[in-house]
Amino acid sequence: MMKKYLSYILLFGFPLFGCQNKVAGQAAYEQNWKLLEQENSALAFDADIKLSDAETALDKKLFQMRKQFLAETETQKLPLFSRSFNELKPLIETSKLFDVLQMMPKGGLLHTHSGGITNVDWIISAARKYKECYVYDQKDNDQFIFGQLAFFAKENVPQGFVSLDKKLISDPGFESKLKELLILKRDNLCSYTDYWIEFEKRFKRINLLLPYRPFFKEYYLKGFQDLAKDHVQHVEIRFIFDELYDFQHGKYPLKTSITDLQDVIKEVHQSNPQFTLKLIYSSFKFLDPASIDKQLEVAFGLKKEFPDMISGFDLVADEAAGNSIYSFQNNWTKLNELSKKYEVDMPLFLHAGESNSVLNKNVLDISILNNQRIGHGLNLIYFPKSMELIRKQGKLVEVSPISNQILGYVSDFRNHPARVLLSNGVQCSINSDDPSVYGYDGLSYDFWVAFVYWELDVKALKKLVFNSINYSSLNKDQKKEAIVYLNKQWNDFIQKANQKLN
Ligand SMILES: [Zn+2]
């Protein structure tokens, strides 16, 4: 009997036992895998967001829409990856996803610049209406460059400038040529361009337009109206202050820019009563510490007079060509003293890490300084300790995906460093940096790129949108009001988008 039992075990028992082990092993493997999956998502920047049933329903629809979009591009053999924004733009505009993202409330645009907000077609058509507007139509020299626009009194027009309106009438091809000169395109990802040189030329071509007071007001009104149309409720501009002027009065004090912008905002309020604006006083990284001292004094002076309009201070320009943030340490250590003198704080909003190089160490300064928001932070992922500090300190990275591609820091959007930041729990917001220079309006394009290439879901979109108000420079009461408004807009959007995609 025993022998028979043993032969039974030998024949069937051991295999059965082995099978049970295998099942138990598989269950443990699955459990470990699922645990790891949960642990990874718990580290992500949007881990605290819980979706409502309606949001979950929309999430499923958007997931399917993206899947279908990707399948269609596959069928049509459209190269979707490693393509420049310029090549992708028509595809984005005709996609159903773009319609939905255009409907989405964006919250705040936290990172944009004074010379890069307003549509280039509009700039040309508005500028030509002024008989005192001229364009430089000669070869570049030390002072002026081809296509540079400016206002002059009739008796003071420098040589080489011709009336813009007359030039546009007499040379029918000039309008599109001028447009090309005002927009920076990365036509494809392979050809060589000295991006920053070309980029700065775009700004130079309109720099003499903006301080002309009548044009200044029109420019910002149009810029803000277009942003409001794209469901942006709040804007913070890295603002380069210049004395405004007109030909009757001459120059106005610096603060006229602020009071004029307050008037412009009142006009925007007629159609968009919730719209808010803050200015970040911006100077340049290529200046020396002594000049930055002077700039800081001016910024403090303006903030003391307009504490509700000026939110902080930044230094802009190509990080590879300019001075490091570290080299301005004497300026930063004086901030406390200046705060006491002027009785206002001056938080920093520095551009840092707009670079692919580990030799650029600007992100290191961010965790040491009172700098709640970082412009770009592309190379932050190569400084793990700083990345951890920035995450723990609850600082936010202002990400501008399209700008980063056009200026040559990223080619394939799928490989944008912000994906690493987001999955590691670093808070981010989506921004357009200089949309008019890149040839588009609003913030929907950047959200489209992030949604499609970074495989975002509604949870991530919601967190990015709400971050842009939570990390804004709005004061406590304004923020509260802005969140109430955004919540309402968000819920309306979820409902409308769900209906639209039924
Ligand atoms: Zn910027």
From TrEMBL:
Gene3D superfamilies: Metal-dependent hydrolases
Cross-referenced InterPro entries: A/AMP_deam_AS (IPR006650), A_deaminase_dom (IPR001365), Ado/ade_deaminase (IPR006330), Metal_Hydrolase (IPR032466)
Adenosine deaminase domain ranges (all copies): 209-482
Keyword terms of this UniProt record: Hydrolase, Kinase, Metal-binding, Transferase, Zinc
Cited Pfam families: A_deaminase
Cross-referenced SUPFAM superfamilies: Metallo-dependent hydrolases
Cofactor: Zn(2+)
Coiled-coil boundaries: none
GO MF, any single term: kinase activity
PANTHER family (UniProt xref): ADENOSINE DEAMINASE, ADENOSINE DEAMINASE 2
Family, similarity comment: Belongs to the metallo-dependent hydrolases superfamily. Adenosine and AMP deaminases family.
The protein's name: Adenosine kinase
Organism listed in the record: Chryseobacterium endalhagicum
